[in-house]
Amino acid sequence: MEYRRLGASGLQVSVLGLGTNTVGPDIDQDTTVELLATALDLDINFIDTANVYSRGVSETYLGEAFRRLGRRSQAIIATKCGVPMSDAPNDGGTSRQHILESTNASLRRLQTDHIDLLQVHRFDPATPVEETLGALDDLVRAGKVRYTGCSNYAGWQLTEALFAAKAAHLGAFVSIQSEYNLLNRDIEREVLPVCQRYGVGIIPWAPLAAGFLTGKYRAHQDRPADSRGGRRPYWFIDRFLIEANYPRVERLQAFAEAQGHPLSELAIAWLVHRPAVSTVIVGASRPAQVAANVKALDWKLTPEVIAQAPEIAG
User: Fold this and answer.
1) Which of 75, 106, 114, 277 has the fewest CB atoms below 10 angstroms from its CB?
2) 217-251 burial: b if 16+ Cβ within 10 Å, else e
3) Can you give the pTM of this predicted structure?
4) Which domains does the chain carry?
5) Mean per-residue pLDDT for 102-117?
6) Which residue among the candidates 53, 61, 180, 217 is catalytic per the annotation?
7) Cα four-point dihedral sign 87, 148, 265, 284
8) DSSP readout, 56-75?
9) Residue 203 pairs with which residues in a beta bridge?
């Protein structure tokens, strides 16, 4: 397993991380234990979740899994706050009130005394950025949080947060989670250059486009019954399953297989080779999928393959 610094920080994270947004709706407690054990056995140390995943269930299952395994010290636990957890007026956003309360709730669910990386799940235009950064800084000083990051920020929003932190002498974001895959490279226009300039680590989410970049979904065919998109309607995979995307995936699959690898390995390996990327978080529903994802790290892409893949995707 390769480890990289998370942005400009000194924290070392595995280049492949385990995403857990399926924990709860698709994965029960016992399977969560198996997935976590497999990830740790394969030297994956970055485990990503969020308080809003199944309204706390993902964090709860992970906390119980760590308790059963007794392996908390091997992991870098990343969670998030900011997305509403209920209809209560202060149970969402990035106010000091919500950040402090939601972090304490996450600590209880995760059964830990600290969160390694606390990420603001999305930009909150209703709260001054200084208030958000001040609350996060207080959590770091209190020892409840080690590092802070953001998720789903636009380039200007990330830049504003970095400049505000510097001006107020507060801790700055060390990372950003952004959707990034061979079918969606929007962050390359603004977010990626900001991260390169200011030393912010990129954590791509949806590297497999919710499973579309495995090749399991085929044009004019029923969705596989064992896939996330086949089990129930799901907005995220639904937006990829459009007529224009199927030829793109078919071209990518043919290209990957010509190199002797499945499409999923191309999708992961390509992101691993992108600038400013610290760790790529990939979800799984079975331990075997975790092991299969790790195999992608053995593929050291040539500059030609790195350049050709996005051109083929179109």
Assistant:
1) 114
2) beeeeebeeebbbeeeebeebeebbeeebbebbee
3) 0.93
4) 3-313 (3.20.20.100)
5) 98
6) 53
7) negative
8) GHHHHHHHHHHHHHT-GGG-
9) 177
Q: What pLDDT digit, counting tens, does each position of 265-314 carry?
A: 999 999 999 999 999 999 999 999 999 999 999 999 999 999 999 999 88
Instruction: Determine contact, residues 49/313, Cβ cutoff 8 Å.
Output: no
How far, in Å, CA of 298 to CA of 103, rounded?
Answer: 37
43-62 average pLDDT score:
96
Token representation of residue 161: 């947060």
Distance between CA atoms of residues 8 and 5, nearest Å:
7
Q: Is the distance from CB of 278 to CB of 175 less than 8 angstroms?
A: yes
Query: CA dihedral in degrees (199, 205, 207, 210; nearest 10)?
Result: -170
> How far, in Å, CA of 302 to CA of 130, rounded?
43
- Is 147 annotated in the active site? no
* Chain centroid to CA 26: 18
Contact 243, 216 (CB under 8 A): no
